[in-house]
Amino acid sequence: GFVFYCYAPHYNWFVFDMVQLEEPPYDPAKYTMVNPNEDPEWFEKSSITVGAQDKSIHVGYSKSLETRAPMVAEFLKNIAMDVDTVNEFTNEIVVKQRDGQEVAREWIAANSDRVDGWLGL
């Protein structure tokens, strides 16, 4: 075996039998990362002894969409997917080389209640 870094969502979680190592929970007092572009002594000044803070992925759209097509903007604002779902999408599209629209159609058909919630139905 070996140890390497892999973020999620990523299709590697489907391709390989990976196990996520347990880390101490995120604590901002124990997570100091200095950007190398900001300080030449970034490495000496950085200290990370805990897991990273969870990240979020957001759907971006033009602010003008809120007036041009408010229902579309509301739909996009409501979209929320968990890491496992995005991992599944990337596996189907990148690894299995399936058409993204086909994968999306199948997922929508199997998750119509969730999509209806995004649509406010």
TrEMBL record:
One Gene Ontology molecular-function label: transmembrane transporter activity
All copies of domain ABC-type glycine betaine transport system substrate-binding, residue ranges: 2-109
GO cellular component: ATP-binding cassette (ABC) transporter complex
SUPFAM superfamilies named in the record: Periplasmic binding protein-like II
Listed Pfam families: OpuAC (PF04069)
Superkingdom of origin: Bacteria
Gene3D superfamilies, per database record: Periplasmic binding protein-like II
This protein's name: Glycine/betaine ABC transporter substrate-binding protein
